[in-house]
């Protein structure tokens, strides 16, 4: 299967993630919201893992892979709590989410360039510049 439909489905899931954090932010403390979110996510992951295992799929594990996944979990856990706090401070979803998501895309690209030594085409670099401009325009006045 082509990667693009999966990436667009992922974008939809992340949109729902941000949208529901915005809705929940004024109804639950950030730490509790993040824990509930993570427990549900862990449950979905566990069901998927058990399904793969029941189908007899090999699940090779390395210490490095587990460590890197744990670091990703640290990042997402902190991001969840901070997203709840951002939305509790009254920023709209149409402003806060583009700044958070756009900023994460930009910073991930920079990490890819600096740490992983990835290359960018001119068009891709232009896209990153547009993200910076977009973040500036969206955040302007807030």
Question: Would you give an account of this structure?
Answer:
This protein has helices at 3-24, 30-54, 63-88, 93-114, 122-139. With 142 residues, the chain is mostly helical. It has two domains: 1-90, no CATH class; 92-142. It is built from five helices and no strands.
The radius of gyration computed from the alpha-carbon positions, rounded to a whole number of angstroms, is 18 Å
Treating each run of at least 4 consecutive H or I residues as one helix, how many helices?
5
| Poorly predicted spans | none
Domain tally: 2
Helix content: over 70%
How many strands? 0
- SSE string, helices as H and strands as E: HHHHH
Biggest sheet overview: none
Overall pLDDT confidence: 94
Please state the overall shape, judged from the principal axes of the Cα atoms: globular
Question: How far is it from the N-terminal to the C-terminal residue, by CA?
Answer: 41 Å
The class by helix and strand makeup works out as mainly alpha
Beta-strand residue fraction: under 5%
Secondary-structure topology with pairs:
Layout: H1 3-24, H2 30-54, H3 63-88, H4 93-114, H5 122-139
Helix pairs in contact: 1-3, 2-3, 4-5
List keywords for this structure.
2 domains, mainly alpha, 142 residues, 5 helices
Kindly summarize this structure in a few lines.
The chain is mainly α and 142 residues long. The chain has five helices and no strands.
